[in-house]
């Protein structure tokens, strides 16, 4: 944890995170205050540019004795937050293993490998196996768009592209459809093809995907192994330096 | 570098490759001259390196590759029965890996395309010699079938990670892999 400025600590209210005082500003959530203070809490659907979502549950902490997602929990004076306890970390590992076994995440052939947040969070949590029996779902790949590949095998349903397209790009290209295990990403075109949407390479929706579900064509493997975002440092260090989609040109 | 005091009895290690590409075995050899040091502490039983086919009682089994046919399952169960500690080595053993990319396809369609209707296939037929192991309808990771004690991911796992795993196990420690040694690719 970086040492907060002494004056700042006096003036700002604090809560307790794993035995350390974390200062916060009114309106901040627990994860926002923690990341701003240089303390990493694993997360996937949380993004600094978007409103709290609370869907992936990976940022779950034990807050005042109860499990809660730290990305939706408002910071308040005197909260007792447990994050890096064996109990909480085990729960996060389970969630990440669910994501790996529910989709088709074949890292050796994925262009996003090394820059992928799901993978990096797996490394950080020490996930060595999917543990559960993999489902090997049959999911489509949409290569119709001239510049963009949509591979739903890798989608973790974080809705970052949905939110980015609706709130920042003003296009509403993406949405989720279905429920439970059949929930899946769809695109806003009568044909159901990405080529028939307004998606463009510069769109925020295009660049916010934490995994390799939405990727630019003809860019794969441009950054060699060893120089990718999470080769140099673990996500626990990189995430507190800012929300970036590392490695993407 | 000395790992620990050389034991009176060396650990017996069996290795095998199921539905894999031998890349994990190549990565094992990639620990280079440290293999010589390692041989103070371990001895190889059945392995492609010794060309012995059937493992005797072993302390450690390293299994590369997933399960794509009936023989793979038979060999894996045999390894599990003979090895005190079983390690799933590499992406295919842990996730099914590259061979599992056929899992969303029908096995009959796969065989027909490869042996009957594929480009350049003339007068083909689907092999049915009784000596050939029957393919499974899906490729499975090892832990779908047997208990696996340790997992070492990577395609292949880096030599450094294999070295860390082996030296930890030789020293009687739970293997610890930090940043840079855990790779899914």
Can you put this structure into words, describing what you see?
The complex is a heterodimer of chains A (249) and B (185). With 249 residues, chain A is of the alpha+beta class. Chain A has two domains: 6-84, Ubiquitin-like (UB roll), CATH 3.10.20.740; 106-241, Alpha-Beta Plaits (2-Layer Sandwich), CATH 3.30.70.20. Chain A has eight helices and ten strands. Chain A has a five-stranded mixed sheet, with helices on one face. Chain A has a three-stranded antiparallel sheet with strand order 6-7-10, with no helix packed on it. In chain A, strand 1 (14-17) and strand 2 form a beta hairpin. In chain A, helix 3 (86-102) packs antiparallel against helix 4. Chain A is globular. Chain B is of the alpha/beta class and 185 residues long. Chain B is 29% helix and 19% strand. Chain B is built from six helices and seven strands; from the N terminus they run βααβββαβααββα. Chain B has helices spanning 23-29, 34-38, 70-82, 91-95, 107-117, 159-170, and strands spanning 11-17, 42-44, 58-64, 67-69, 83-89, 135-140, 150-152. Chain B has a five-stranded parallel sheet with strand order 2-1-3-5-7, sandwiched between helices. The chains are: A alpha+beta (249), B alpha/beta (185). The A-B interface holds A 100, 104-110, 113-114, 119, 122-123, 126, 128-131, 133-134, 136-139, 225, 231, 233-234 and B 88, 91, 94-98, 100-101, 103-104, 138, 141, 143-144, 148, 150-153, 155, 177, 179-180, 182-185.
Number of DSSP strand runs of chain B: 7
CATH C-level label of the largest domain in chain A: Alpha Beta
What global shape of chain A is seen? globular
Quaternary structure state of the chains depicted: heterodimer
Distance between the termini of chain A: 30 Å
Structural class of chain B: alpha/beta
From the spread of the alpha carbons, the general shape of chain B counts as: elongated
* Amount of beta strand of chain B: 15-25%
CATH architecture annotation of the domain at 11-101 and 135-170 in chain B: 3-Layer(aba) Sandwich
Largest interface: A-B, 28 and 28 residues
Order of helices and strands of chain A: HEEHEEEHHEEHEEHEHH
Provide the number of structural domains of chain A.
2
**CATH homologous superfamily heading of the domain at 11-101 and 135-170 in chain B:** NADH:ubiquinone oxidoreductase-like, 20kDa subunit
Unreliable stretches of chain A: 243-249
- What is the N-to-C succession of helices and strands of chain B? EHHEEEHEHHEEH
How large is the share of residues in beta strands of chain A?
5-15%
Distance between the termini of chain B: 29 Å
Mean pLDDT of chain B: 95
Number of strands of chain A: 10
| Helicity range of chain B | 25-40%
